[in-house]
Write a structure and sequence with these properties.
Blueprint: H1 11-17, H2 20-26, E1 35-37, E2 40-43, E3 60-62, E4 71-73, E5 81-82, H3 84-89, H4 103-117, H5 139-147, H6 161-164, H7 182-189, H8 196-202, E6 205-207, E7 223-229, E8 235-241, H9 245-254, E9 265-267, H10 288-295, E10 297-300, H11 303-310, E11 316-318, H12 326-339, E12 344-346, H13 352-366, E13 371-373, H14 394-413
Parallel strand pairs: 10-11, 10-12, 12-13
Antiparallel strand pairs: 1-2, 2-3, 3-4, 4-5, 6-7, 7-8, 8-9
Length: 414
């Protein structure tokens, strides 16, 4: 008679039969205090994913009643997620597979789930435990190597002829919603700051899938395309925003977050966005320093926030990521010291996710120069709760500007 563990086994059936508590106990991990929120539980992250230090009390969300135990980490700069198999990958001793175990790693997890169903309560002692937060090899090590490379090279100076030909890719952009597909036109019309004039000034627009005989733009076609410019104004790269992201993400969430999460922004492979700030080129323009000395250097999350504030005459820079890098924070602090009166004002999303994302940048920036929040869910009597910088009307920004200006005068006076 064949062993219970041999033969074909459907991983979906195993996940449905095993509880979160059984898995955590099997790997010898102590689960933090649980807080139930609707159909999911929230807790501090306890996964061996390479994090440093503790997370927020509700960073990790797990749908314990779901057959696949769908989970996601909302800690700033993380965003990892998956099902019970990926959860096991971050708990099982040894080098993980980034939540996507393959080969022997996957077979080992399959064997572990079968062992749990067979009544075993602890992983084999021959497996060496890994420390939470330890830096892992493999994929993450490769990413670290990328970050240590020299800075990004302007497209005009690229040794790649095809890259050099993309310097003026914006000449192919469509900036008038009347000439776009309904879905893409809706994206622009819901963002009134993306006027044709503003798009041309910021070199932003929609790159149609049919971009001409030369097929310029490659993976950017069919996207809203933005440039990352150097401090001198040279194009370093183009990156694309999926105009249908919101609909696709809602469908992905409604479907139990199965499969790959829809991509909101697409950057070309090899570009080191952690070295740059969207909007950094504008800071060298005449008269910018006077604006910055009143409000401090405004730091936001995304490119649309920068463009929206620019419509009010407010210079800002964006991280274009969920979490800032050391290089970005050092650049922010240097700009603040040189032209912004030493002050930095963070203006991430005014919601739980935005405030969590702002914490690491707030802490790291505070080590280098004065920094404060431009808003929070509780400030201004809660008037801006749930808002993003790009949603502000002129009079709403004036209220925030007045607050920031008064704060700057008090700092200077002391």
């Amino acid at each position: 008679m064949k062993s219970e563990r041999s033969g074909f086994v459907k991983i979906e059936e195993l996940m449905a039969k095993v509880s979160l508590e059984q898995v955590v106990a099997f790997y010898g991990v102590e689960m933090p205090e649980i807080r139930r929120v609707g159909e999911e539980v929230r807790m501090k992250c306890f996964l061996n994913c390479g994090r440093k230090g503790e997370t927020g009390e509700r960073a990790l969300a797990i749908q314990v009643e779901h057959a696949a135990k769908i989970w996601r980490c909302f800690e700033a700069g993380c965003g990892k997620g998956g099902n019970l198999v990926s959860l096991c990958d971050y708990l099982k001793p040894g080098e993980h597979g980034g939540g996507k175990p393959r080969g022997e790693r996957f077979k080992g997890i399959l064997s572990d789930l079968q062992a749990i169903l067979a009544g075993e309560t602890r992983v084999k002692e021959t497996d060496e435990p890994s420390e939470p937060g330890a830096v892992v090899a493999g994929k993450q090590a490769d990413e670290a190597k990328k970050e240590s490379r020299p800075g990004n090279v302007p497209l005009k100076d690229s040794p790649n002829e095809r890259a050099r030909a993309l310097v003026n890719l914006d000449s192919k952009f469509i900036v008038d919603p009347a000439e776009m597909s309904p879905k893409t036109a809706s994206y622009f019309r819901h963002r009134p700051f993306l006027t044709p004039e503003a798009c041309r000034r910021w070199r932003v627009g929609y790159l149609p899938r049919d971009s001409g005989a030369d097929h310029a733009g490659g993976t950017m076609r069919g996207r809203i395309v933005y440039p990352v410019l150097s401090t001198e104004g040279d194009v370093l790269t183009w990156f694309g925003r999926n105009p249908g992201f919101e609909e696709e993400h809602q469908a992905w969430t409604a479907g139990g977050k199965q499969g790959k999460e829809p991509e909101k922004y697409h950057f070309v492979k090899g570009f080191q966005r952690g070295l740059e700030l969207f909007g950094q080129h504008r800071l060298a323009q005449e008269g910018i320093a006077e604006h910055l000395k009143e409000t401090g250097l405004m730091v936001v999350e995304g490119p649309n926030d920068v463009i929206a504030l620019d419509a009010f005459g407010v210079p800002a820079v964006a991280l274009c990521a969920k979490e800032s890098t050391t290089e970005q924070v050092e650049r922010i602090a240097r700009i603040a010291r040189e032209i912004a009166g030493r002050a930095v004002s963070l203006m991430f999303g005014c919601d739980d996710e935005g405030e969590l994302a702002a914490r690491p940048t707030l802490v790291e920036t505070a080590k280098r120069c004065p920094v404060r929040l431009a808003w929070s869910q509780d400030m201004y009597g809660g008037a801006f709760r749930g808002r993003k910088p790009q949603s502000l009307a002129k009079e709403e920004w004036e209220r925030i500007r007045q607050f920031l200006g008064e704060g700057r005068r008090e700092v200077v006076a002391t």
